[in-house]
# Entry
Amino acid sequence: DAGVIQSPRHEVTEMGQEVTLRCKPISGHNSLFWYRQTMMRGLELLIYFNNNVPIDDSGMPEDRFSAKMPNASFSTLKIQPSEPRDSAVYFCASSLETGGSDTQYFGPGTRLTVL
Amino acid sequence: DAKTTQPTSMDCAEGRAANLPCNHSTISGNEYVYWYRQIHSQGPQYIIHGLKNNETNEMASLIITEDRKSSTLILPHATLRDTAVYYCIVRVAEYGNKLVFGAGTILRVKS
# Structure
């Protein structure tokens, strides 16, 4: 079975450029999460979707970040304009939420470097 | 969410059992204990979770004390590939409840 798929795996860009990260969740899952990992802050949740609807975006750092989920099989995280402090590994995770003890499954991550 | 306390690092000999402790003294009755691990440069990997009973799967066993204030993750026969950061997380099982990752325990399996 395919797990969570993320692309690209690595992205190097210059400050001020737009960056788009992509995620394909596990088929049948109804929830999707975007996390960011840095040495300073560890792993932190950015935004959570349930049934394609953004439910909690309190972790999104600022207006430069936006996320969409146009359908159940695709989500994007966009940074515009990018800044060097956005350099991090971005993980997408998905789960089948039933209100019980669901499990989040993570993708391999996108390593973003902003020069 | 209740917070957890884990040792910063542990060593384990290859082939031996690795026992990773976690304290969660303020855990609530409806909070589950989850364990994830992160191998270098990979995404976090789910290992196991439980509420109050001990649990076992193909990867590990989870032992939760009767008062639920602590737990131990057991990897029965550690291999070099088990070298990773192990995260113990307590979480209420409700919609959208995020995983809050602490610093975790760095487990080094040595030959």
Q: What stands out?
A: The mean pLDDT of chain B is 92. Chain B is about 0% helix and 45% strand. The interface with chain A takes residues 32, 34, 42-46, 49, 51, 93-96, 98-103 of chain B (CB under 8 Å). The beta strands of chain B are 9-13, 18-23, 31-38, 45-50, 55-56, 61-64, 70-75, 84-92, 105-110.
